Amino acid sequence: MESPFCDFLKITTPLDNEYRLRSELSLFLCQILNVTLTSDGYFSFPFGGGISMRSYTGVKVFGVSVTGKAIATMRSQGIWEDFLALISEFPHRVTGIDATLDYYDVDSPSILKRLYNEGSNGLHRLTRKSISSSKITKIFSTDMLNRETGTVYFQTRKSEVHAKVYDKRHEVNSNGGLLVREVLRYELTVTGKMGPTLRDAFNPTSMFWHYMGETLLKRPDNIEPWVGFSEGFVLEKSVELLPYQQLVRQIETSCELHRIVELAAMSGQVGSSRLINDLTQLLKVAIARQGEIEKTSNIAS
Known about the structure:
By secondary structure, the protein is α+β, with helices and mostly antiparallel strands. Helix content is 41%, strand content 23%. The longest helix has 33 residues, at 268-300.
């Protein structure tokens, strides 16, 4: 049996951190992966999926969402831990996480039918309370072997903890792909109110079995107990670079800067002149501001 893995992650941080976190993520991703930054600030990964960022001005937070395919790419490149370590350097809250476990070479249609029938009779739960039969739903269709199969949902998407179990092979083949091997996927979603942390994003085993091991699956022996709101993911702080070192790294690796330069070049002389003039003005303002800061500091000392 495989181990549970993180298949989606969303974090939020105070809005004041937006610029620095955007810059750090851009620097990290462009240095290591061949990502594409779209005009709306989405980091598109070469093998599918990506990272989206959004400002929520009403509640004054900045959100970062990572898709399963992007996580899989970073995991395969050995940088998923580094990505989480970068996030951990900012005050943050995990507001959503998916943990997934795949079972191979099983009779998916039969298991899904059994799970749905058991759930309809009130026999399943994710927490201590049994799930109402009205919140056990299914979407089935005929697969390539003429069997009824699909997805069974446990709780609604509005619930703090919900899950689904589905025939992964049928899903892929129904969407025009080709997957020969039988795969039954168990997917758990836990929201921020339950207290998941970056530690769970790195290794969701305890969290997964805490909920899925109630009735949907038999919990293995020796699984560490899971407690929400425990200490997050902590690694050594990165070495602080000098301003000029930071400047060089940003110029060399900033996806956003490279995109701006490309757009200026595509706009011809008028675009190039606009970029040079705007950067010159921004630099003059920054130099003047830095001078005022140094002057105030000298007076205070």
